[in-house]
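>> received
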Amino acid sequence: MFLIRQATTNDLKGLKHLASVFNTVNLPNDEGILKNLLEVSADSFSGKIESPGDREYVFVMEDPQTQQLVGTSMVIAQHGHRDAPHIFFDVRQVERYSETIDKLFKHKVLQIGFSYDGPTEIGGLVLDPNYRGRPGKLGKQLSYIRFLFIAMHREFFRERLLAELLPPLTDHGHSKLWEACGRRFTGLSYQEADKISKDNKEFIKGLFPAGPIHASLFAESAQEVIGQVGKNTKGVQKMLEKIGFHYVNRVDPFDGGPHFEAQTDGIWPVNESRSVQFSVVDKGRIHEVSGESAEGLVAREESATGEGFVSGYAAFRFTDNDPNVIQIANEDAAALGIENGGSGWILPFVWQTRR
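>> returned
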């Protein structure tokens, strides 16, 4: 069983390896930023950060044989505050027509926008390429663990969820949109602007035009990436759309990556997550006894071992007498630190009925 648990400050080395594989906005290949991220996450899980909107939760996946980190994902409880707004480009189309020469043009226009009371953001999803395509859909587990955690602590999160997807970048990791637009207004490279924005986005608000920017003035190659999803992110897009996310005609002002949003209570992984009590049984009872069973994420929190949040993919069976009691195999329970009669949460992926 691959365990997904809350990250700790001891995970810096493993997290830096994952960041080097796929350098992203939320998981940059920068040791100082990653160290701070792990500290914030630890304080978020512990409740040391009192305001729920200031919390950021990082999850990591461990290979059971090597104990090495093979994946990560995160939840930013609120992306956009008064001191650090959520910044975006609204993308719209305007038409211009001249009756004199009978010419009609349709222009793509970018309008800078700010949200000071932003949504919950899901991000930082990285799975080591060597572990893609393995049984158990590890990438799906890493993605859905965020929705399970949101359901467990629904009061900590916003009414809307945001996912900022990566657009196509150059072979050197540069943004064609930034070169055509952002660099002209800031004098900064894509990497410089991205790093500065981690702590302070004021330069975007201060230097970008307040009015509309006509993308038709950009090179064709820069126009083409606006709102497009990169090749390595197509799978994420498909998964998000399947559960209820949709493109909202907004993009990241740095690279033009599309923003997908959904109502938090309108997606099935949140709605299907539920609190249960565990009954630990022999493995054979899960599939061999008649009744309804499922496979999916099983999670527990604040166990006697003091390990905090931990989850894994396992099979479980629903009892006939009480829908709030599920049976789980003893070996899976041991791996997750679950005791007979203990409480936790489940998110079913695959349902089965045996008669």
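>> The chain has two domains: 3-86+115-268, 273-354.
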